[in-house]
Each structure stands twice: as structure tokens, then as C-alpha cells.
Fold this protein.
Amino acid sequence: MRWRNLKSSVPILTVVGAGSWGTAIALHLAKKGYDIRLWGHNPEHVNSLKKERQNQKYLPGFSFPDAIIPTADIGAAVNGADCICMVVPSHGFRDVFRQVVANMRSSCSVVSATKGVENRSLMTMTQIMSDVAGEAYLESKIQVAVLSGPSFAKEVALEVPTAVTIGCTSAATAGWLQQLFNSLYLRVYTSTDILGLEISASLKNIVAIAAGICDGLQFGTNARAALITRGLAEMTRLGCALGAERETFYGLSGLGDLVLTCTGDLSRNRHVGIKLGEGKKLSKILKEMSMVAEGVKTTQSVYGLARKIGIEMPILEQVYDILYKDKDCRTAVSDLLSREPKEE
């Protein structure tokens, strides 16, 4: 397929990842009048997108405008793009980005909308980009950014009022991306704290699993509120130790996304926690889910990261033991509550 040539004033946009969030972003940008190349790794799924003109598997009920062009050809998807939005699961991010780098143009903006930390390397997504492409290449050829904040895919597709943050070290690029994504229902703020946005966005999924466990155990709203509050403290502690800015954790990507993911019925990570609290095994829960709950893999990554730098994270430790050591949920809560009392 040949892509339609666009005037230089109209950016060429690519969304890499045809899950629910990638599809919602593609729909949002298409509504703003841009042509969107939507890449998916599974040719069968992409053929379904082309034929049905909607994402029946991950975000059903939202018809694709003509501006969205699905493709399984990564070269065709990213070649010549001015902005590439990476929306693939964290465990596949590295391999997909290698393909993106091999086919992309120079002077391109790459926005990570993936929330997670890679298991093996303990890297965030922008750190993976630097590792794959090389820091010198990124600095001279690519402007890296992060899109984060409380934003369920379905609600963005429904045009429910939403606020998110674009993080980029370049003020000019951040401003350009802000205008690119901003709309009457999606308000976009900017930040220079890329690391803080990534860490907060990743860790909130772990706390959401814990909150879901409490809901599954029917512990009520007191317990959930305590977990959200103390979870935020753990997120901030780790993030600051890594060099992030404390204020970021009290913003949209931190507190905002934490509240949403710990309380919203559309939260995959909270869903996993609820089922664990109800007594189901993790393997069965994940087998029954069609979409990825990033918090499961991120728990393993952040557990290793916290131990590596010596940061105490009691909620994380109990979630890790439940997920990876088959610890009983009630026992985990009891162990959490029976710790030595401390100052807040």
C-alpha cells in the first residue's frame, strides 16, 4: 500500500500497537483530522481491523474513520512518520522498537504510552529506547517523550473529559506534542520529568492489584484508601531514590492514575487483584483475560529494582509474594498490618 503524500505542515502519525489504548489514541488523533497508520503485530488481527473497521477484540463499538489505516508492515507504518506513538506491552517493547528504529526517519518524535518496567533489564521504556538506539542517536535524531495519566481507553474513545501529561526534555517538542494531542475532551499538560512519569505510571498498577485484593476480600473502602495512600508513599520513595521529582507523584501520572486504577471498574490490574482476593489462581485469571495487566510483570521488575537500590516497599513485597510465591492473600494483609508501627 502506498501512503498518501501529506503536506509538510500536516504531520505523519503512526501508532505502534493495536490494543485498546493504541486504538483509542488512533481514534482520538483521527478525530482531530490526522491520517493515522495503526500497526499491529498479528496479521490476522490487522485483517480484522481492515475488514470490520473497528477493533472488535480490544475496543469494540467504535467505528474507524477512513483516516485510520491498519497495517502489519512495520516498515510501511513508521517510514517517514513525524511522530510515532509506542503502545505495545512492556515485555515486547524492546523487540518492536528495534524494528521501529530500523525503519524510521531522522528528526522524529517517539512517544511512549506504555506503562511498565522491563523484567530482565529493570529499564523503563525510554531507557530501553536509549539502550536499543544508543544515547548519541537519540540525542541527535529522535525526540523521546512519554504520555501518561488517568486515562481508560474506552472513556477516551467515548470522549469523556480526561487529563494527561506529556513528558519531554525538549520544551519545544513538548509544546508541539501538547498541541497534537490536546482537544476539547482531552486536556494535555507538559512536564520535563520523564523518569517520574514512567515510574509513577508503572508502580500504580502494582498498588491497583493490592487494592483489588482488598476489594476481593471485601475489606471495604477504609482498606482501599489506606492502600492508595501508603502505595503513593512507596511510589514516591522509589521514584525519588531513582532521581525523579517528588511533585510528579502528586500529579496526573502519579496520584491521578493511582486513584483511577485502584477504584475504576475498567482497571485490568484491579480486576486481577479482585480475582486473587476471591481465591482464584493467577494462571487461571490471566488465561481468562484478553488484554495485558501490566502490573503483574511490573511487580517482578520493581521488586528487583527496589532490592537492588535498597528501598523498603512493604505493599510491593506482599503483592510479589502473592503473585510469585502463591502466598495466601489474607496472610499477606495480616503480615502487612502486623509490621512495627512507624511515623507516617
Q: What stands out?
A: The radius of gyration is 20 Å. Residues 13-192 form a domain with the Rossmann fold fold (CATH 3.40.50.720). Confidence is low (pLDDT under 50) at residues 1-8.
